[in-house]
């Protein structure tokens, strides 16, 4: 089968690391003997329209420039690619990719699959600094695009419920939570190099995530302050980058925890496993809102696969993902998050038990 996959971001930029999902899906399809092409939208414009092959997958870069002429050009290219395809797969409701995907599929009469992995409109209104009209346009697209597709995969039960509200038949909805590469993320992976790089000798508590809107690293930093009031010989690490980094670094200074808190900035995804391996405890803290209720957080799948004890906020898919392989805390509550961290710091046998259970959970489901 020939499968055309369309993703609205740059698959090869550290500025947009959330492209891991589509790359992993494409690689798994390739392993199963399918022919795969991926259309993507690079940030650097001089890379546009230069096709290339990588690991047996053809990559087709298109432009995300605003304008009718560019939109029509993308539709024309996708029409040609759709003639090759037996089925078309696309992610997210960004207009410059979703509209050409839907139009091309309907004109060429090819089956269309929508991978709905986040509630994009909610994220936009939480974080974006763009005109209100764009948000309204995204809301319309995200509401009606599911109705134009033959099948839909969803990363959470909440998104499945939204699909059913739209009167989409249950048999057309497929659960597709995130998964981790079980070879890359493994309990045997060594974190020594990371510990040596930052001169760490004691316990390490690590938060991994993009430092953009819809992320909640400030909860972690506030919890750091509470933990340090009781335990001094602990190192904390925030692995990730984003526009909120200066704000979070300032918060760490104001709370007087900067000397115990490392901000790594941007780390390539193929090195994230080393940072998880260096951790004794891993963190996934969230607020309780429409964004977090819809997620199956990738960081949790990777923590599980790495066999690490986890402290996470009890919201959305998190409780089901952990399956008892971690400590659940109240969402949006740094004090409860700190209590969970302290519990693991003080109970080595519990850490070991939860780490083993985490790996089994990944092997069973989040692979």
Describe this structure in words.
By secondary structure, this protein is an alpha/beta fold. Helices cover 43% and strands 18% of the residues. It is built from 15 helices and 14 strands. The chain has helices at residues 20-31, 68-84, 95-108, 120-127, 132-144, 157-165, 192-197, 217-228, 245-254, 269-277, 290-294, 298-305, 318-322, 334-345, 348-364; strands spanning 2-6, 35-40, 52-54, 57-61, 87-91, 112-116, 151-154, 173-175, 203-208, 234-239, 261-265, 281-284, 310-313, 326-329. Strands 3-4-2-1-5-6-7-8 form an eight-stranded mixed sheet, with helices on both faces. Strands 11-10-9-12-13-14 form a six-stranded parallel sheet, sandwiched between helices. Helix 8 (217-228) links the parallel strand 9 and strand 10. Helix 8 packs across helix 14 and helix 12 (298-305) packs across helix 15. It is globular and about 65 Å long. The protein starts with a strand and ends with a helix.
